[in-house]
Specification:
Alpha-D-Glucose-1,6-Bisphosphate, Chain A, domain 4, 184 residues, alpha+beta, 5-stranded antiparallel β-sheet
């Protein structure tokens, strides 16, 4: 019986020593790499993903950058919903449509690429490229990238829809805040 307890204790100590030694508790570092001010050191560690905050004073703690909460993303999808999409990569911030023609017109095609540069609703948040393809027959097509008229109209439509979605979302939040808790 004592031999069993001894084996358990020894195996427990070996396990603890093994785990602690693999943690890498001590690593020699160069003091010149770290700022001497504590606040700057903390910020550097947070920027590098080495720490966490318990009581963050950031008011946007409930804001998530998911596709359903990003107004620009939703507005872009709603604006381009009539066109088939080749790629919709929210993480990469890009939408690419397939070649599209209207009324079975096999001579004129259009393809649109929308790249998101920021989540903020502003005029430089989107990089929109419009490609047009003119075909004489199946094998003879000319592709042009420059179509500023359609590009400007798309950017304007997307930004207008996105700002409307944001206003609706703010109005919804105000409505929820004004509702008494006993009614919810």
């Amino acid at each position: 019986m004592n031999l069993g307890r001894l084996i358990v204790k020894i195996s427990f100590l070996i396990t603890i020593v093994f785990h602690l030694s693999s943690c890498g508790i001590y690593r020699p570092t160069d003091a010149r790499e770290f700022p001497p001010e504590p606040k700057k050191r903390v910020q550097k560690n947070l920027d590098e993903g080495r720490g966490f905050k318990l009581f963050d004073s950031n008011k946007n703690s409930g804001t998530f950058d998911f596709a359903t909460s990003n107004e620009l993303w939703r507005a872009s999808l709603d604006t381009l919903d009539f066109m088939p999409l080749i790629s919709a990569d929210y993480g990469g911030g890009i939408l690419i449509t397939d070649w599209y023609n209207e009324n079975n017109n096999y001579e004129d095609y259009i393809k649109i690429s929308v790249r998101f540069l920021t989540n903020e609703i502003r005029s430089d948040a989107l990089n929109v490229k419009v490609y047009t393809k003119k075909c004489v027959n199946v094998n003879e097509c000319i592709i042009n990238e420059d179509n500023p008229e359609i590009k400007n109209k798309l950017v304007s439509t997307i930004l207008t829809k996105a700002s409307k979605y944001k206003q609706d979302q703010k109005a919804q939040r105000r409505k929820i805040k004004k509702t008494p808790r006993w009614l919810v």
